[in-house]
Amino acid sequence: MSPSPNGAYGPVLDGLPRVLRPTVADYLELHRHPELSGAEERTAARHAERLRDAGLEVTTGVGGHGVVGVLRNGPGPVVLLRAELDALPVREATGLPYASEAVAPDAEGRPVPVMHACGHDLHLACLGGTAALLAGATGHWSGTLVTVGQPAEETLGGARAMLEDGLYTRFPVPDVVLAQHTAPLPAGMVAHAHGPVLAGSRLLEVVVHGSGGHAASPHLAVDPVVAAAAIVLRLQTVVSRETSPAEQVVLTVGSLHAGTRGNVVPASATLEVSVRAFGDEALERVTAAVHRIVTAECAASGCPRDPSVRVLARSQPTLADPGTVAAVRRAHEETLGAGRVAVWPASTATEDFPLYGPAGAALHGVGEVRTAYWMLGCVGPEQWARTPGAGAAAKMAALPPNHSPAFRPDPRLSVPAGVTALTAAALTQLAGPAR
Ligand SMILES: [Zn+2]
Ligand SMILES: [Zn+2]
Predict the structure, then answer these.
(1) Residue 234 sits in a domain of what CATH number?
(2) Do residues 35 and 179 both lie within one domain?
């Protein structure tokens, strides 16, 4: 018998062909039927069924539609693997035969198109495949496997809701939490960061209070549209004039709403501002600058009262544990090949994943919880070849990113790589012969 190409991970990973077909089928089905954050009922039920089929003990309805699977397999560490359930209000434009045509009511009850434009369907299918692979090879590892299908990641509320609903009290407390996320890298690859993986964020809502009136007599009103426009421009100086060029900070005004028609001066304007940085100090500093500028611009416009500034959502930077990341990276080099393991430069995307680590552990009175998080390539070879650009960096800049209507993971290569990466990572942390 020839030795397994998967080395020490062979006894478990050699079972991959057995789980690939159901995992790809699961992916296609999840992709075709996406659900918005907080409404992941069907997705959760499907995932729960898959875990039950694999032999895990399954609990549903944790912190909303959250799904927790547990597989106790003797003494050893508790390893938690996390994937997300939710999709985005995006109209899919991939033209794929399994493209989503789903429409669902948004928070205000308006029908919106829905698409898995962040790859959460791929993460979830790979989690199901990994659970099946580990459950089918219990003679080759020991410890406890916990799987989490998390709702409402895109609205940054799901991890907190699951923790508050007893994730770390009703279920085995993890020693380590692992997750992967799709990125526009070639399918079959993974990428690890050498420092922060993702930024922390604050989502701020700003309401500018003017006083409404007739468009014909603006001198009798205080126009919040003009104040809001000045605010949008002045906010651009927070990064360009107040932040060190050596520091990575992003400030984006992602929405601005005012008025109903052209012949009325509205009474108020509402902006949403997304702030991203790699440390709490920077996030607090930029948030304070937004307060200062918004208040001063409203005073300059003669607004009858101060604006309101509310934090709608917040997340922390994803700073994985260096030792755990190093072990997982070595396992990925061994199982995928060193040429398929790239370096990930810190991204200003954000996640609620850090709550599973030290911050969440402290909140819920449990001991140290380590984390590791890596990016999973998902661009198929044809799409990569078709994408203009001389080198990998130019191609990556030209590819449709996560959240784009044209985001289209290729499951033929990214499903096997995703299951391999997650399974090998789990085995580095579990006890037993495969270690
Ligand atoms: Zn996303
Ligand atoms: Zn995502």
Answers:
(1) 3.30.70.360
(2) yes
